[in-house]
């Protein structure tokens, strides 16, 4: 297990990058705590896999350093970093049995035969492949092979970190849930530092202690699922986390009031003068339909998703989503929407602005 430090780290796939826009991974400075489980979450092309491959040693960064427990490993090859990595698509030895595939990392390091047998049996139970231990990997389905890859990544107990690059892509949905649960159980039992790359917010939020949200080559927020939901530090986090994501609307801010197209909304905090692109963000869960107060809305449709209803509306030409309790009536006179003032986030140029709790302007 190891603390992982990203020191002035950046990477460009161009030989002579001229500016920030040429960098697939923009400058990062972060410490990732020893023994925690992290998920790298973001859309395709945001830099997740680039960062993971730098940590593993498969890619040399254009600038900066990677440190494990304050030891610089930037120039060390993958084998010297004592990590295990599981890739998006299965990597197995087809001519070996499932048992021998799982045992390979341990035998390669000279582990005791009795320990190897016990550990292989334990991992096989975890991935649900005890009955296939004596079968050759050749001929197994893609999801079975990926389970072998996962097992081989998890079989060693002495690694500095376990790295997973979208490992459940080829796994069927039911098995995905079971394997995520098993990975979380493994982490709780052994305390490995784990880094899990995914574009699926459900995978990230159910697996990780901390979620690292990436956008356009940057880490825009590191936080718990609750922090990402309640106080998104960037509008992308608000958009990407949640279903539906956070509503974002242009606004003018004066003290503890927001003005949307001239209509005033109270805020839970006070703000000083803001420049640039100023917006407010509100989760659909904290918006309420009304017949008398708030912003005017035009309801386009209502989607019943079982546990609640999602109202798709238009407000001054901007899309607005509102979550309404299952079975709650939505009358024809409900043509306005109000927001919980304490739940409104304020943004300037996409970054969250912290207001003053007193209600006085900063």
UniProtKB/TrEMBL annotation:
UniProt xrefs under CDD domains: ABC_Carb_Solutes_like (cd03259)
Keyword line: ATP-binding, Cell membrane, Membrane, Nucleotide-binding, Transport
GO molecular function: ABC-type ferric iron transporter activity; ATP binding; ATP hydrolysis activity
GO cellular component entries: ATP-binding cassette (ABC) transporter complex, substrate-binding subunit-containing
Residues spanning the membrane: none
Family named by the database record: Belongs to the ABC transporter superfamily.
UniProt cross-references to PANTHER family, sorted A to Z: ABC TRANSPORTER ATP-BINDING PROTEIN (PTHR43875:SF14), MALTODEXTRIN IMPORT ATP-BINDING PROTEIN MSMX (PTHR43875)
Protein name (record): ABC transporter ATP-binding protein
Record organism: Brevirhabdus pacifica
């Amino acid at each position: 297990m190891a603390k992982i430090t990203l020191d002035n780290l950046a990477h460009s796939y161009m030989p002579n990058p001229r500016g920030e826009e040429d960098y697939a991974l923009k400058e990062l400075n972060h410490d990732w705590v020893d023994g925690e489980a992290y998920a790298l979450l973001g859309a395709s092309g945001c830099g997740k896999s680039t960062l993971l491959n730098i940590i593993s040693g498969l890619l040399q960064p254009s600038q900066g350093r990677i440190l494990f427990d304050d030891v610089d490993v930037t120039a060390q090859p993958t084998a010297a970093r004592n990590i295990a990595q599981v890739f998006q698509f299965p990597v197995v030895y087809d001519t070996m049995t499932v048992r021998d595939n799982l045992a390979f990392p341990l035998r390669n390091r000279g582990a005791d035969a009795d320990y190897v047998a016990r550990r292989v049996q334990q991992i096989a139970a975890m991935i649900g492949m005890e009955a296939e231990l004596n079968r050759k990997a050749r001929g197994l389905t893609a999801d079975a092979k990926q389970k072998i890859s996962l097992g081989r990544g998890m079989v060693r107990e002495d690694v500095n970190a376990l790295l997973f690059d979208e490992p459940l892509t080829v796994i069927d949905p039911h098995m995905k849930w079971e394997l995520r649960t098993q990975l979380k159980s493994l982490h709780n039992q052994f305390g490995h530092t784990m880094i899990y790359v995914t574009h699926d917010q459900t995978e990230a939020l159910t697996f990780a202690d901390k979620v690292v949200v990436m956008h356009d080559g940057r880490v825009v927020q590191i936080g718990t699922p609750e922090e990402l939901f309640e106080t998104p530090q960037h509008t992308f986090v608000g958009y990407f986390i949640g279903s539906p994501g956070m509503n974002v609307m242009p606004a003018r801010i004066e003290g503890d009031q927001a003005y949307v197209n001239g209509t005033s909304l109270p805020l839970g905090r006070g703000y000083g003068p803001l420049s640039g692109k100023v917006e407010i963000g509100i989760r659909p869960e904290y918006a309420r339909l009304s017949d008398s107060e708030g912003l005017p809305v035009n309801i386009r449709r209502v989607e019943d998703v079982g546990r609640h209803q999602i109202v798709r509306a238009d407000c001054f030409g901007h899309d607005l989503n509102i979550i309404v309790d299952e079975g709650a009536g939505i009358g024809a006179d409900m043509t306005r929407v109000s927001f919980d003032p304490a739940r409104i986030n304020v943004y300037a140029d996409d970054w969250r602005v912290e207001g003053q709790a007193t209600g006085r302007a900063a």
